[in-house]
């Protein structure tokens, strides 16, 4: 991806009541990169996502997105910069169709009068249809979101985030509770959508991380324990000791 921004965490620490949830964490995610982040419970994965999205302020260190220092911005400002986050539990309107949910996720004008005057333009319709194809739900466009399977709901939410055209997408445990087939399709989906944007995936499922086939960062005690291919980190004795060997 050309012209995208690099995410650069440099020496980030987060201290909660004397406890270091992040400890001098440094991490670079290149524009268009798809990065997996794994690590034992309490390693600091969620806190890392919270720091990037502005939910938690670092006690120390800097978080840059291109030239911009994210630690000086609030959550809304960071979202507006093009940093999207998918939480584990999908949030959508079950009583609306898949298409209507996508429509609501569009960058529509805000405010009551603007909303009343808002009509779906041809361009916006095409954008929704293209994204539905990207997430594999084009056949389900007119179905209510409430009847989708667990996996399809996760894909719809990813699609809704894509409607905002994020430059960086953070995805939290996307395949928890999915069938094997859904897990495989989710890996293919994330590989498809990276490149045009950067994607950071936090996940415990190592088979899924292997299917992504990209660089993996292992966090432990709030900092990077190991980094490289899945084979590299799975064979790293330190990773085996603190994570895989448990
Ligand atoms: N608001 C908070 N106040 C105090 N401690 C916190 C707070 N948030 C997180 N922690 C602690 O910081 C550590 C890192 O937590 P974090 O949720 O980032 O880990 P994680 O890698 O996401 O774990 P999991 O895989 O279980 O989700 C944990 O020990 C947690 O108890």
Summarize the structure.
The chain has 246 residues and is of the alpha/beta class. The protein is built from ten helices and ten strands.
Extract low-pLDDT stretches: none
What about the largest sheet?
A: 6 strands, mixed
Shape: globular
Count the DSSP helices: 10
Keywords: ATP-binding, Nucleotide-binding, Transport
Organism: Falsiroseomonas selenitidurans
Domain ABC transporter: 7-246
Protein name: Urea ABC transporter ATP-binding protein UrtD
Report on the architecture of this protein.
The protein is α/β, with parallel strands linked by helices and 246 residues long. It has a domain at 87-164. Helices cover 36% and strands 24% of the residues. The chain contains ten helices and ten strands. It has helices spanning 45-52, 75-81, 98-105, 112-117, 122-134, 150-162, 180-193, 206-212, 230-234, 237-244, and strands spanning 7-16, 19-29, 34-38, 60-65, 68-69, 83-86, 168-172, 198-202, 216-220, 223-228. The strands form two sheets. Strands 6-7-8-3-9-10 form a six-stranded mixed beta sheet, sandwiched between helices. Strands 2-1-4-5 form a four-stranded antiparallel beta sheet, with helices on one face. Helix 7 packs parallel to helix 8 (206-212). The model has no long low-confidence stretch (mean pLDDT 92). The structure holds adenosine-5'-triphosphate. The site of adenosine-5'-triphosphate has 11 residues, from strand 2 and helix 1.
């Amino acid at each position: 991806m050309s012209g995208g921004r690099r995410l650069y965490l440099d020496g980030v620490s987060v201290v909660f009541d004397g406890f270091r949830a992040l400890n001098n964490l440094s991490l670079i995610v290149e524009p268009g990169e798809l990065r997996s982040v794994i690590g034992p419970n309490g390693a600091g994965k969620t806190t890392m996502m919270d720091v990037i999205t502005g939910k938690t302020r670092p006690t120390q260190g800097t978080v840059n997105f291109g030239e911009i220092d994210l630690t000086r911005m609030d959550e809304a400002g960071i979202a507006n910069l093009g940093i999207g986050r998918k939480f584990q539990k999908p949030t959508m309107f079950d009583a609306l169709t898949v298409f209507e949910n996508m429509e609501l996720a569009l960058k529509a004008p805000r405010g009551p009068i603007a909303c009343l005057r808002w009509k779906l333009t041809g361009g916006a319709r095409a954008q929704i249809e293209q994204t539905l194809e990207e997430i594999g739900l084009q056949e389900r466009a007119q179905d209510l979101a409430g009847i989708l399977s667990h996996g399809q709901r996760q894909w719809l939410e990813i699609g809704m985030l894509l409607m905002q055209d994020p430059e960086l997408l953070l995805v939290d445990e996307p395949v928890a509770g999915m069938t094997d087939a859904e897990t495989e399709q989710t890996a293919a989906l994330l590989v498809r959508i990276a490149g045009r944007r950067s994607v950071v995936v936090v996940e415990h499922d190592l088979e899924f991380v292997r299917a992504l086939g990209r660089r993996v960062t292992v966090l432990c005690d709030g900092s990077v324990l190991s980094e490289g291919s899945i084979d590299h980190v799975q064979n790293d004795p330190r990773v085996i000791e603190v994570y895989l060997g448990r």
